[in-house]
Amino acid sequence: MSDLDLSDTPDSDFLGFELLLDDEDRKLVERVREFMLTHVEPVINGFWTRAEFPHELVPGLADLGIAGLQYDGPGCPGRSSLLDGMVAMEMARVDASMQTFMGVHGGLAMGSVQLCGSDEQRERWLPAMARMELIGAFGLTEPEVGSGIAGGLATTARREGDEWVLDGEKKWIGNASFADLVVIWARDEADDQVKGFVVEKGAEGMTFDVTQDKIALRVVQNAEIHLAGVRVPEANRLQGASSFEDTAKVLKVTRMGVAWQATGCARGAYEHALRYTLERQQFGQPIAGFQLVQDLLVKMLSNVVASTAMCVRVSQLQDAGLVKDEHASLAKAFTTARMRETVGWAREVLGGNGILLEHHVGRFVADAEAIYSYEGTREINTLIVGRAITGESAFV
Ligand SMILES: Cc1cc2nc3c(=O)[nH]c(=O)nc-3n(C[C@H](O)[C@H](O)[C@H](O)COP(=O)(O)OP(=O)(O)OC[C@H]3O[C@@H](n4cnc5c(N)ncnc54)[C@H](O)[C@@H]3O)c2cc1C
């Protein structure tokens, strides 16, 4: 029997999932929580309103040592997927934009190098990325193709001697405008296969238009990337990526990160809502004492607990090397739907104050809309699970 007690975990961890972690891992989760509450929560609404990224917070994030947390490449922390997920949830519980920034850098960009790079490429880039001295971005989606990217990717790569020439357009690429390394997925004109290229900051012919007027994740700097005859050395082509199946290996890992993020977003909204209902008085008593309000609070908590349980199990499968695409897709589709429901209920119990940034819930409601759609929409993840359980592909 463990001498741990449920009171050792936060109240919103109702079934004590954190107790699945060992002491060292739990300490890291607590450090992340402390950082987010102390340094991010007090300032984030201002950055959200101004649609600015708080670059000054990056050294503090780097000190946490969480970039590429579950990768075991050179200089990487090499911790479990379960810990990686719980850290993602912890960040999103306070702010989903900062977690997206880390997910793009430490999940997608570092994951591309880790899972699709050669030993030499891992040695060259991962240690500095883990220290966050080099920040990464991941360029897959295009203006004309999102869900259908596997077959429809139009950016081209043409080999000329020891170089490749990239031409095309990317859309929605997080961190791209300030990243040191942008992973660009392009179709090799010679064999029609999708390959990955690490394009370094300042490459001639690569320009950006930062996306304006977003109503979600406003802190994240998304950009359209224009690639006009960008020359990349063969040494920067990810040597282990020879088709879209290799790109998909990265997405399988990061899709789980988004499921954890959605769970964190729902949990943060629930916590703010619970606190508010205990403080807010109507008809001479805290609104938390009304049956209809408790009904919503309990439904929110149920969503958070069910989502966490699903994420925990899929991460355990990932740690055991047993995870399949459909597992990550089920988790992403389920948790994001539960998140959307939960943030809506949180907003509801705040009444009019629910639409003010001041109480944070309004930001969670808005940010949830982006999380719901990226890394595979609910429809696409549903089709992946549907294909797995029926053996019939309903993709058209
Ligand atoms: C804030 C944000 C950040 C992002 N960051 C990145 C990033 O860093 N890097 C990157 O590469 N991409 C990024 N993306 C892109 C993201 O992955 C895409 O938005 C997503 O894959 C969906 O593509 P789409 O927006 O083009 O929608 P579409 O593919 O046009 O889909 C529109 C609608 O049609 C539905 N649909 C499409 N096909 C089918 C079908 N066969 N059956 C049923 N329904 C279907 C979809 O589910 C959706 O509801 C980001 C997006 C956002 C919003």
TrEMBL record:
In terms of superkingdom, the source organism counts as Bacteria
Q: Which UniProt keywords apply?
A: Flavoprotein
One of the record's GO molecular function terms: acyl-CoA dehydrogenase activity
Q: Where is the Acyl-CoA dehydrogenase/oxidase C-terminal domain?
A: 248-389
Give start and end of each Acyl-CoA dehydrogenase/oxidase N-terminal domain.
Answer: 23-133
Q: Which Pfam families match?
A: Acyl-CoA_dh_1 (PF00441), Acyl-CoA_dh_M (PF02770), Acyl-CoA_dh_N (PF02771)
The Acyl-CoA oxidase/dehydrogenase middle domain is annotated at 137-228
**A Gene Ontology BP annotation from the UniProt entry:** fatty acid beta-oxidation
Q: What is this protein called?
A: Acyl-CoA dehydrogenase family protein
